[in-house]
Design brief:
This protein is an alpha+beta fold. About 55% of the residues lie in helices and about 15% in strands. It is built from ten helices and six strands, in the order αααααααααββββββα. A six-stranded antiparallel beta sheet has the order 1-2-3-6-5-4, sandwiched between helices. It is globular, with a radius of gyration of 21 Å. About 5% of the residues have low confidence.
């Protein structure tokens, strides 16, 4: 894959729309091309910053009177325009312009949230798929094995993964129930998988090797959402950790942030 080919499909890659084989080609290209990694980081940062700005900044919420005024104005112009052949889609375009202008006006007044790296953001699509087909639908193509067996075959760190999650403050103090744990594979990506129940919803805590050996992990960040699922992620030495559920985005990221110190300390020791 060339850099030009990557740029052509970067948006589809971020959205998780590429075929499996093409997705693997992109990952291989990113592994060896620092320029494309930086470009993807910039794309991910822009998309997540815009989304999180609206989700987490109350100051961006327009006044109700302003919303009513804009809606009435657009409806008036839309009604008038339909008589002269103006397409209805103009209303959506105008509304989008209003939102962009409002964001531009407010952006300098909010703190930029932490965003996931390109590597974690890309793997977040796999994590969401594993949660859906393993924890929810039990429909993986390959059989699961115990964490103890995965520790013997692949990496000793898997042996204590369930205990580390269960003993973390995020679980003990948050009223979270551990439902099970195992090792599984989704689309060629291996995961240590702890399944929990938080606020009545099934939550997956997924660990996968990344090869990065940083001594300190990153803060938890929101990854790309996928088909109604929220994904939060953070890195730990040599691994990426993903927390996936249909919990509300704010509740999920807070859980991931409270879970991160325990897992990052565990991987640093290991």
């Amino acid at each position: 894959m060339t850099c030009a080919e990557f740029r052509d499909m970067a948006e589809s890659y971020q959205a998780g729309e590429l075929p499996i084989d093409t997705n693997h080609e992109v990952l291989a290209h990113l592994d060896r091309c620092a320029d494309c990694r930086r470009e993807l980081d910039a794309r991910v940062t822009l998309r997540q910053t815009l989304r999180q700005a609206f989700e987490h900044a109350p100051t961006l919420a327009p006044e109700p009177r302003f919303v009513a005024s804009v809606r009435a104005t657009l409806e008036d112009h839309g009604a008038a325009g339909r008589g002269f052949g103006v397409p209805t889609s103009w209303l959506a375009l105008a509304a989008g312009v209003v939102l962009v202008v409002a964001l531009g006006w407010q952006y300098g007044r909010i703190e930029r949230p932490h965003v996931a790296s390109a590597t974690l953001s890309a793997l977040g699509v796999h994590a969401a798929g594993d949660h859906r087909y393993c924890a929810l639908e039990h429909a993986l193509d390959e059989p699961v094995i115990t964490l103890d067996e995965a520790a013997r075959r692949y990496n000793p760190i898997y042996a204590s993964l369930r205990e580390v999650v269960a003993q973390s403050a995020a679980v003990r103090e948050g009223g979270v129930e551990i439902l099970g744990a195992h090792w599984c594979v989704f689309k060629g990506r291996q995961f240590g998988h702890v399944i929990a129940k938080h606020s009545g919803r099934v939550v997956s805590i997924l660990v996968t090797p990344t090869g990065q050996t940083s001594s300190a992990g990153s803060p938890a960040a929101t990854c790309e959402s996928s088909a109604g699922l929220q994904v939060a992620c953070f890195d730990a030495p040599g691994h990426g950790v993903f927390v996936v559920s249909d919990l509300g985005g704010g509740e999920l990221i807070e859980f991931a942030r409270s879970l991160a110190p325990s897992l990052q300390a565990y991987f640093a020791r290991a």
